[in-house]
Write a structure and sequence with these properties.
This protein is α+β, with helices and mostly antiparallel strands. It has two domains: about 35 residues, no CATH class; about 70 residues, no CATH class. The chain has two helices and seven strands; from the N terminus they run ααβββββββ. α1 runs antiparallel to α2. The longest helix is centred in the first third of the chain and has 16 residues. The two termini are about 25 Å apart.
């Protein structure tokens, strides 16, 4: 699907509504117009099959890795989409680059090892298959 300017989208909508006053705009027409608008706003050049979402989001409480004051590397349950993880240590948001970094597609590396008893939660998006 092509990326459209706002003016082009306005003209397409106007054509569909006023092009033939006797014609009823169908749900398919509206869906196509809305897809064009969304693609233009987010810059998506790809198609998504209607009714499907290629991503899911999760809050990962069960990271693999010992929370013991020395371990800094933790593995998530799913391969995450780059830059999507939001990491919380004892409920406090951590900052990428300052507090942690992403290692590969499923590991979080803390700059300072979490202490025994600390709670780590990672919210992230991942591709579904």
């Amino acid at each position: 699907m092509a990326i459209f300017s706002i003016l082009t989208l306005k003209n397409r909508i106007t054509e569909r509504i006023h092009g033939n006053r006797a014609r009823v705009i169908t749900g398919v027409d509206l869906q196509e117009i809305l897809h064009d608008i969304i693609d233009s706003l987010i810059g998506s050049g790809g198609e998504v099959v209607p009714g499907t979402d290629p991503t899911s989001q999760t809050s990962d409480y069960g990271l693999t890795g010992a929370v013991n004051g020395t371990n800094k590397l933790f593995t998530t349950s799913h391969n995450f989409i780059a830059l999507s993880p939001q990491v919380y240590l004892n409920g406090v948001r951590q900052f990428r680059g300052e507090d942690y970094s992403e290692q590969g597609v499923n590991q979080i590396y803390f700059n300072t090892a979490p202490f025994s008893g600390d709670k780590i939660i990672v919210d992230y998006s991942f591709l579904t298959t």
